[in-house]
Amino acid sequence: MYGNTRGSSRASTRGEYEKLVPLNVEKTRGLFVTAKSDAASTTTATTTAPVLFLLDVPYICSCSCHPLLNGVAVTVLKNLAYASIWIALSASVILFNKYILAFGGFPFPITLTLWHMLFSSSLAVALVWSGAVPSTEGMDAHRYASAVMPIGALFAGTLWLGNAAYLHLSVSFIQMLKALMPAAVYAVGCLFSTEKFAWKCVANMVIITVGVALASAGEVALVPLGVAMQLGSVLTESTRLALVQILLQRRGLKLNPITTLYYVAPASGFFLMIPWSVLEAERLWNGFQAGDVSISPLVLLANAACAFALNLSVFLLIGKTSALTMNVAGVIKDWLLIGMSSFLFHSKVTPLNLQGYGIAFAGVCWYNWTKLKAMNEVVSAVSVGAATAAAVEPQKDVNEKDDEKR
Length: 406
Hints:
Blueprint: H1 6-20, E1 24-29, E2 32-36, E3 47-50, H2 57-62, H3 67-103, H4 109-129, H5 141-165, H6 171-177, H7 181-191, H8 199-217, H9 224-248, H10 257-279, H11 281-290, H12 297-320, H13 323-344, H14 351-405
Antiparallel strand pairs: 1-2, 2-3
Helix pairs in contact: 3-12, 3-13, 4-5, 4-10, 4-12, 5-9, 5-10, 6-13, 7-9, 8-14, 13-14
């Protein structure tokens, strides 16, 4: 790869990296390294920089004289493993749900979602009550009613509508429609003042929307009801994310995926009972009576277990890496699902589908990049301020000693 200049290229790469991060590694996040300056060791200031040395992995692994690079290489490999686990589980749950609802003789999306909530609630309660997972402090009846219940209602809508869409649309097309999520999150964020309005961001969202519109125009099996359900799922999910920030995070209530299920799943189950009793309960009973519903309980149990494992993998991925890593992994998962849907369920993907999704994909990538850039600018500003304060402090001590001598 490098020819005769391999050694000099390595030295250059290492030198460039050390100029960016001449520090101790505190934590790696995805493909980016978070390091802390010795001068700012008493602060939480961090500096984020690209891992330039990923271009030469063998050098990293063999560089015993540089523990910084060795540690980062191991962490990057671990992060790739976390992302791979999440991608595998997420894709499995989506394909599993599609199979059960569209091909497994169980066309009851509300019932399936309600079963997931019951299963997840039971396991979450067992984990919290056994002390394996600590409960959240500060959660009382008022906060539960005012903060958790609205989020539970939106979560129920997201899962119900998203699962119902599998009855009408292909997995590949649904993944294309999900590319609208950043646009929906930004629009709802501006509405609730959790995002700042900027014409540059609006232009980005327009590109994503145009791409999804082109992909929809190229869909050969477009069912308006299915599209409406998936768009409704996107809307409820984006609203839920905004309310999580407003109702939970701003009140200091921090929930991991287990405690989220512990509090939110019962609320979601409660709200799901309303449409279930009206739309599916009688039809499901009649189907069992007539022998038209013959799905194995083991299949439903395995499906719910996969869904619960997916929640754990989300906690693992975000806890060990970052939300940005999850976004990047999500893009990879979407392309993977488009291919797997075409192979497993023979879903037809047209050139216009791919062209439209390619445009939306570019918009999503640009959105993630601008978010990362903005985050890095904030982190860099904090780091510079912390380093300046650390440099000024010794000078203050010297001046104080001079004053005492005088």
